[in-house]
Amino acid sequence: MRNYEFTVIFDANEEQTAKGLELILAEFNTAQVEIVKQDDMGVRNLAYLIKKQDKGHYFYFELKADPATINVFNNSFKLMMPVLKFLFVHKETEV
C-alpha cells in the first residue's frame, strides 16, 4: 500500500457532484482503498473550459492504495460523466 494524494473536479451542478462523489467512493470501497483524509474544497472557477464547463467542484483525498489499482482508476474515472478532471500523485513518506 502506498500513500497518494487524489484531487478530482466534478461538474459544478450539485446533482452531478453528488453522483460523481458516490461513484468515486464506491470504486474506492470496492478496491479496498483506505481514505485517510477527505476535503470538500468547494466550487471554483476553472482556468479554462473543461467539457464546456467554466466552474468545477473540487474534492481532495489522501489515501492508501495498491499501485495496480491506481492504473485501473485512471481508466475508469476517464469514463465517468460527472468527472471533469482528476489527478493521482504519489505522496512521499516522511522519515
Secondary structure layout:
Layout: E1 2-11, H1 14-30, E2 34-50, E3 53-65, H2 67-78, E4 83-90
Antiparallel strand pairs: 1-3, 1-4, 2-3
What would your notes on this structure say?
With 95 residues, the protein is α+β, with helices and mostly antiparallel strands. It has a domain of 66 residues. It is 31% helix and 51% strand. It has two helices and four strands.
Regions with little confidence, pLDDT below 50 for 5+ residues: none
Number of separate strands = 4
**Sheet of most strands:** 4 strands, antiparallel
Strand order within the widest sheet? 2-3-1-4
List the total number of helices. Answer: 2
The ordered H/E elements are EHEEHE
> How would you sum up the global shape?
globular
Q: What radius of gyration results from the CA coordinates?
A: 13 Å
Estimated helix fraction: 25-40%
Features:
single chain; 95 residues; alpha+beta; 51% strand; globular
In short:
The protein is α+β, with helices and mostly antiparallel strands and 95 residues long.
